[in-house]
From TrEMBL:
It comes from Cardinalis cardinalis. This is ARMC7 protein. It holds the Pfam family Arm. InterPro entries: ARM-like (IPR011989), ARM-type_fold (IPR016024), Armadillo (IPR000225), ARMC7 (IPR042462). ARM repeats lie at residues 49-91. It comes from the Eukaryota.
Amino acid sequence: MELGRLEYLQALVTEFQVTDSTEAKEQVLANLANFAYDPGNYEYLRQLQVLDLFLDMLTEDNETLVEFAMGGLCNLCLDKTNKEYILEANGVEPVINCLSSSNEETVVSAVTTLMFLTTPRSRAQTTALPVVECMLRFSLSANTRLSNLASIFLQDYCSPLQVEEARNLSKHTAVGIPLPKD
């Protein structure tokens, strides 16, 4: 039975790699992200280098591929081995970049993933000033899921000093005002 699961996951990865169809890639990536929810699949997904596949997809132009890859990483990073792998692969930066996505699911998964990836060693990166500023903006969002998640991030992962520094910096920036032309 377990061998069947590995073979099935291998078939999905192979299909993703060989197909030219964007729709098929999206469907396969969605399936892999769903399989990433089951801890029983973690070892197989590591063996098949699906973490790398998800990380690679975070920089794609196709928002659907980014959404499913971000969701897959979010599902995988609760596991200590997967978390360490993502951190060692410099995965925090592409996750942070997903905070600017126009896709709500991508952003929610990115915020959650940053929470899961925060360790004493990674905290400086996951709670860098631009991230804290972004979470302050999200905490004011009309989207309840996003505002609640950002508020939890600020409360549980950031120091009061970090939040205050980000608030003060935000007061002094001219967000949305174009720079003068030469």
